[in-house]
Amino acid sequence: MFNTKNFRFWGILTVLSIYLLILVGGIVRSTGAGMGCPDWPKCFGQWIPPTQASEIPTDYKDFYANARKQKNIKIAGYLDKMGFSELALRIVNDESIYIEQDFNATKTWIEYLNRLLGALIGVFVFASLLTSIAYFKTDKRITLLAFSSFILVGIQGWIGSVVVSTNLLPGIISIHMFLAILIVFLLIYAVARATANIQYDNFYIEKLSNKNTVNLVLLSAMVMLFVQTFLGTQVRETIDIVAKQLGEGNRDSWIEQMGLSFYVHRSFSLLIFGAHIYLIYLLKKNQINNNVKETKKGFFNTSGNVLIGLIAFEIASGAAMAYLAIPAFLQPLHLVVAVLILGVQFFALLFVNETYFFKQKETFVGQV
Questions:
Q1: Is the bond preceding 41 in cis, omega lying within 30 degrees of 0?
Q2: Predicted confidence (pLDDT) per residue in 18-63, tens digit
Q3: Closest Cα partner for 300 from 343, 340, 348?
Q4: Where would you tag: which of 82, 185, 249, 252 has the fewest CB atoms within 10 A of its CB?
């Protein structure tokens, strides 16, 4: 089990699974299935959710609303002690938190499958931690990164329970998502560090000059995308509010009710696109001494092409949502592609600064 190849396998599998979970989480939200299970970790008090209303008590709405109220009092107390007094007050005083949805078997199972995938990822992260022990004597940072990811997944599970308890309180959902991005970053770093010295026949890392400028533009692009993702969460929260007010049958009227955040989010995407065009130009311009066979593809060239493709899709999907009444299937795709872009950016940042982020090749253990 404690084998370097095994760690790379489990690490990559976990990263891909987290991206899948983000996609599924987007589907949960776009279908309104977030409260398909009113309790956590069970669903209507069962490990296997019900399929029809006759399987649950008739007073389930009052029961779960009261249970959440008691739990939220405790959560608010913890948040208040940590300095989040305003959020604590919102949780205690917002009566909309205790409005239960009518039972819907489809939404219940969508949400429950989302939870099962989350539990499976917990197993994957634990496997990554165990297999990272193979590096403990030679590169402790890999094991520490895997351990940090494992701890954060546990915190993520607790936040997931808070999301349910607070009836999808917007700020908590955003924290839930950004923590998932942090876990992805930690695992990407661990896997990249474990494979940085491995030579592949059809893959190489181009040498770059003028790295300070490249770093500045790359970091700026990452910050811009984080801001854009945050703006996207604000737009998403507004959509949820508008959807409740107008109903699913009036999707074509939702955009008209969106606030300033929507228009800023839409316009900002063009600036991000321009920043990445300039980044790709720098990555190509500053390559030095790269005499490579035609059959090989350089990492930075490939990363640049992938970034442009993903950003183009992101802009196109955003435009489609604006002009096609926000199709439900595009909402989760729009979210997961944004997180994919962040992952590619972070991966590029690691290899631009490989002498800082990775061990020297002559001392690195884990060769295949």
A1: yes
A2: 999 999 988 988 888 888 998 888 899 899 999 998 899 888 888 9
A3: 348
A4: 249
Do 29 and 45 lie in one domain? The reply is yes
pTM for the predicted model, two decimal places: 0.86
Residue type, 160: G
Which residue segment(s) compose the domain that 210 sits in?
201-368
Give the highest mean pLDDT range of 79-93, 239-253, 297-311, 338-352: 338-352
Same domain as 183, residue 65: yes
Q: Are 69 and 94 in contact (CB under 8 A)?
A: no
User: What does the block give as tokens for 210?
Assistant: 């003028």
Please provide residue 229's backbone torsions phi and psi, each rounded to the nearest 5 degrees.
Answer: -65, -40
174's CB contacts (< 8 A; 6+ apart) are: 230, 233, 237
What is the distance between the alpha carbons of residues 166 and 72, in angstroms, rounded to a whole number?
7
What span, in angstroms and rounded, lies between the C-alpha atoms of 221 and 231? 15
Do 308 and 187 lie in one domain? The reply is no
Domain count of the chain? 2
Q: Which helix (H) or strand (E) holds 115?
A: helix 105-132
Q: Are 38 and 131 in contact (CB under 8 A)?
A: no
CB atoms within 10 A of CB 136: 13
Give the Cα separation of 129 and 123 in Å (integer): 10
Q: For the chain, what is the mean pLDDT?
A: 85
Parallel, antiparallel, or unpaired for β 297-298 and 203-204? Answer: parallel
Do 61 and 149 share a domain, yes or no?
A: yes
